[in-house]
């Protein structure tokens, strides 16, 4: 009996082992061999009568139990194997995708340690980003932004891991070990698990050198073209002035009106060329300010006198005048105010007045230009200060312009450490504000 129990115990262990090792096939083969062995024992021991019946019965029961166990364990083993294989395939597929993506990829763990990069990143950087590099502590190559050298803490991926927020469209200039300069656009974001915990961070690095080169060439072209246009247009205006003086003697109304029109159009052309030159100077960093102390009120008064058309009902009213001295580039501020008032005239009807105010507020000079014209919807308030942006809905289409004025104004004010903004609603007029630091 003890030997019988031992045989049952060993067979059960063997069935379990082979089911675990080889799955259903292993389990069933061991079960068949075991059952065959039991019959072999019955046969060699010459069981007969009651013994034979109970031996066959016991073998049948054991065969069923072994079959069930082999089936369950074998099926579990095969399911787990298939799952692991699928996971491995999935990982392999993901690896291949990451490696073959046409953008540079950096993946770091939640502590900012680089865990994975891809081939494209190596091509962009000109060298491999070492695995295990700690973001925020070391920069493998020199990085610049707007001409300033950057320390490792400015890494977008590090910043994203630090704040938990995505960092979008940061542009950098890289100095590669082979001496080549590369412009990159970088996006970074953190990865959360299902419980919202940060488990990793990923960064996408795009090589935008070609695009940047093209932009530089385009800026150079605009700069050159506007310079070339400036000289003939200035001469043209001088000739028109001379011609006007000559024509005056003949007192011919029609000719002098035509000449006035030619002069106006030439002045408009001059303004456009100057705007183009300013945009190009802003782009290439060649804009220089000549700062001096001056009275803002006097400047505004002078501008209004120049822009007020006495033949039209629209009045440019200068109210709330406070005596304010600022330290700024007078000509550039003149351009900003002129642009705001010109826009106010352009985007409102001729019978609606324009109101200009200047005051001191919290240690700053605040200038505002208010009109009662077509107004600007809230979603456009930021965009209108972008380069070449124009609102293009049906009411706006009829107005001429290139969308450079507000961009130039914003850049001028920004470089004077001031701010510019608009308060407006569609159809309810607009008030543009800008601030300038007061004279120290
Ligand atoms: P431009 O007037 O040459 O188109 P700007 O940069 O001066 O370019 O203005 C950008 C856009 O902002 C304009 O196209 C216009 O849609 C809107 N805008 C500017 N000033 C006003 C204003 N006072 N009222 C309504 N819309 C305005």
Q: Key features?
A:
440 residues; 7-stranded antiparallel β-sheet; 5-stranded mixed β-sheet; 9 helices; elongated; binds adenosine-5'-diphosphate
Parts with pLDDT < 50 across at least 5 consecutive residues: none
User: What's the story with the biggest beta sheet?
Assistant: 7 strands, antiparallel
- What is the radius of gyration? 41 Å
Strand content: 15-25%
Structural class: alpha+beta
User: Strand arrangement, largest sheet?
Assistant: 2-1-7-6-5-3-4
- First-last Cα distance: 109 Å
**Mean model confidence by pLDDT:** 90
Number of strands: 14
Bound molecules: adenosine-5'-diphosphate
Shape: elongated
Number of helices: 9
Order of helices and strands: HHEEHEEHEEEHHEHEEHEEHEE
Task: Provide the helix percentage.
Answer: 40-55%
How does this model look, in words?
- A hairpin with a 2-residue loop joins strand 11 and strand 12 (364-371).
- The N and C termini lie far apart (109 Å).
- The chain is elongated, with a radius of gyration of 41 Å.
- The protein has helices at 2-44, 49-100, 119-125, 156-163, 209-250, 253-284, 296-307, 330-346, 405-414; strands spanning 104-109, 114-117, 142-145, 148-149, 167-175, 181-192, 198-207, 291-295, 316-321, 325-329, 354-361, 364-371, 420-424, 430-437.
- With 440 residues, the protein is of the alpha+beta class.
- Helix 1 packs across helix 2, helix 6 packs across helix 9 and helix 7 (296-307) crosses helix 8.
- The structure holds adenosine-5'-diphosphate (ADP).
- Adenosine-5'-diphosphate is lined by residues 339, 343-344, 347, 371, 373-376, 384, 389-391, 396, 401-407, 430.
